[in-house]
Amino acid sequence: MGDRLRIARKTRKLSAAQLAQKVAISPSYVQKLESGVRKASPSLILALAKALHFGPEVLTGQPYYGEPEAEDGVHAVIPELRRLILCFDTPDDLDVAPRPLDVLVSEVDQVAALRRDGRYAPMGPLLPAVITELTHLALSGRNGEREKAYWQLARAYRAANSLAHKMGHHDLSGTALERVRWAADRSGDPLMQFTAGYLVVGAMLRQGAYAQARTKLHALRRELERLQPERSYTQHALAVDGAMLLKLAVLEARQNNAEESETYLREAEAVAQLGGNKDSLAYEMSFGPTNIRIHEVHTLIDMGDTEHALALLAQWSDTPGRDWAPPATTVGERSSHHFIDVASAKLGVGDRAGAFADLRRARKVAPNHTRFHSSARETSAALLRMDTHPSHELASFGRWAGFTTT
Question: What is the pTM of this model?
Fold first, then answer.
């Protein structure tokens, strides 16, 4: 990122001191970022991009091509998805009738499972056919079947949004989100509509629209409470509400509001207790005690309090000398994201061996997700840069991530 930051700064004809003033950091910190000595947090990347009047992808360098793409082929489906999502209400003609809805539901279940585990390479090729066939059923099916088809179509578009976002095609991700909302509004299910709103808030956070995201989340929670009389929430509604609380915690952390972030985390714990303190996949929200811990660590790291975050991991562990880790049953994308966060934190405190160990753990649970994650790439690049004679294992990891290690 350092090279891209320096080029962007010079493109805007700003000195390091001028850019530093715009984002409230020191000129020396800007210089350390540009030289690769320091690594920027997601919130700082957004602040720098906003100050430079660029999108954050200009600094992160997404989408990533090269050897990883040649091996995984994850971008190959993007052109077809662009066309399908653009022509969402005029689907391709079919030579034969769409498969029965129950068959398509099974395929969407498979797509959703692949998405949750960050397995984008096998997921991508499944999306065009299932989206096309579900669209035909949704537009021309009987009333009962039509709403069910729209419900499944919202899930399929969610997977397309996730693929586009994680691969760095942010314009396509935004369009896919609009299709999630379009299908959710026709599904007859308010919780699916809340899910669509929650996903839109995630996109707002990625663009640094914090005030708008906060307003939307509060409005969604008020409407959810209105629809659940006397707060007699169903298990699914609890999962949706809890996920929104965790999103609020991240939002406040991005703005360095530690007290507010902590409050939302504790509220999320109370919601989880109402649901029996069980990890849930209701509406694919991955809400429960495990995800609350993952978010608590993430918010601390995002605010720069890495020592506290690492201390919590040691405190939660049942094994002395080892960090707490999400259970094996946790979805791959969540676990991978956690290990990538922790790797970044360990690098920040000088624990290079620990940082590399967590990158390897992230790769093990979700290789596609890790390989194309901007923070994982920055951490692995920093490790290679700091090591004059990298080990065979680190050099091999660097080549896998797409870096030359000569």
Answer: 0.90
